[in-house]
C-alpha cells in the first residue's frame, strides 16, 4: 500500500508499512535545522493501543552502524582520517 504524506511543501511516499509489520512510524522534514513538517502514524504500543506521537522514543538497534560507517567514509574522503590506520589509534585523526 502506498501512502503519500504531505509535510509542508514536501511529499513522502510510504510503502509496505503493514507488509513489513511496522506498527507505527514518525516522519519529519528538517530544513536548515528547522522542522518544517512532521507526521506520526500507527501505534507505539500495540498491546495497549498507545498511538505514536512526536515524543515517542524508538529503539533503533543496529541502525547507527550504517551512519557511523558513512561518517567515517566522509572523513576519509575529506582527508581527515586515514582508513588504513587502526581506529583505536588517535593518530588516525588529522586536525
Structural class: alpha+beta
Q: How many H/I helices? A: 1
Number of domains: 2
How many extended strands? 5
Write structural notes for this entry.
This protein is α+β, with helices and mostly antiparallel strands and 95 residues long. It has 2 domains: 58 residues, no CATH class; 36 residues, no CATH class. It contains 1 helix and 5 strands; from the N terminus they run E-E-E-E-E-H. The protein has a 3-stranded antiparallel sheet, with no helix packed on it. The longest helix is centred in the C-terminal third of the chain and has 15 residues. It is elongated, with a radius of gyration of 19 Å. The model has no long low-confidence stretch (mean pLDDT 77).
Key traits:
single chain, 95 residues, alpha+beta, 2 domains, three-stranded antiparallel beta sheet, two-stranded antiparallel ribbon, 1 helix, 5 strands, 16% helix, elongated
Amino acid at each position: 500500500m502506498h501512502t503519500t504524506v504531505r509535510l509542508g511543501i514536501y511529499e513522502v511516499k510510504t510503502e509496505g508499512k503493514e507488509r513489513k509489520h511496522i506498527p507505527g512510524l514518525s516522519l519529519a522534514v528538517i530544513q536548515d535545522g528547522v522542522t518544517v513538517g512532521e507526521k506520526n502514524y500507527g501505534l507505539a504500543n500495540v498491546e495497549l493501543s498507545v498511538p505514536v506521537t512526536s515524543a515517542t522514543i524508538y529503539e533503533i538497534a543496529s541502525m547507527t552502524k550504517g551512519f557511523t560507517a558513512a561518517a567515517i567514509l566522509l572523513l576519509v574522503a575529506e582527508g581527515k582520517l586515514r582508513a588504513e590506520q587502526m581506529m583505536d589509534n588517535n593518530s588516525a585523526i588529522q586536525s
